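Justification of resources, computational component.

The compute hours requested in this renewal are based largely on the per-chain cost of generating structure records like the one below. Each record pairs the submitted sequence with a full structure-token output. That output is archived, and it is also reused by downstream analysis tasks.
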Amino acid sequence: MAVAAETSTRTLVSRVQLNRPRGRVVYWTVLVLTLLVFSLVFLGPLYMMVTGGLKTTAEAIQSPPTLFPKKITPSTYGTAWTQLNLAQLLTNTLIYAFGALFFQLVFDIGAAYAFSKLRPVLGNAVLGAMLATLMIPAMVLIVPQYLTVIDLPVLHVNLLNTPWAIWLPSVANAFNIFLLKRFFDSIPQELLDAASIDGAGSIRILWSLVLPMSRPIISVVSIFALVAVWKDFLWPLLAEPSPTKQTLNAGIYSLSQGVPENVLIAASAISAVPTILFFLFFQRNIMAGLTAGSLKG
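The structure output for this chain reads:
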């Protein structure tokens, strides 16, 4: 049985070839080169950003750039924190990101649950229309979105410089709704029918049965929602013109006039720290969510 299990594993290199000395050399050479190339591609820019904040201004702007700082100046990070008011910008970004996450979870989960389990009339047509919006480039929607925000229909309220200008456009996310619906489809209908026979209503089934089983995909949607707000640049720059109410990316750009290059690089490195820590803390949930549902069938 063990032999059968081993021979059933499909790889690019067969076990017979791997047991030969030449096969092992080729295998490890290719593996090490691949790891080195991918490490340089993904970690190289991050390394240059972090070390760039430790360089002097003259060294930071010289060409070609140096690989190691000739004179390490960690005080640049403290200067960037105070001069660019990063504490205020970080607080703004956290408020916008977690507010958008809250509204997306409430409305996207409700919409996905309705499409998957409640199945209203013309539900598939509405879902198809929502998915069709994914084909529209985001830049095309900037102008109508901006006109809507400066004069909200019916209420005629200007939402510029308010968190609602960030939260409302992010609520209806067709991609997240589709992800959630696909996961809800994998939940056996028999479980929901049994709960319904016991007297549970639709809201009770969603809260007590569907959501606890959907933690992996909810984790993934949460990651997407937070990262989308965190990395966005153009929309926060338009919707929050006041520098004291902007996000990290937009605020660093707005306050960058007259600031040395090494201070700007240090500010960029600081702004990337929360997302890296977030990934390190929740990487197990992220990987579990990305593979959730892939084994179905």
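The first helix runs from residue 2 to 7. Confidence is low (pLDDT under 50) at residues 1-6.
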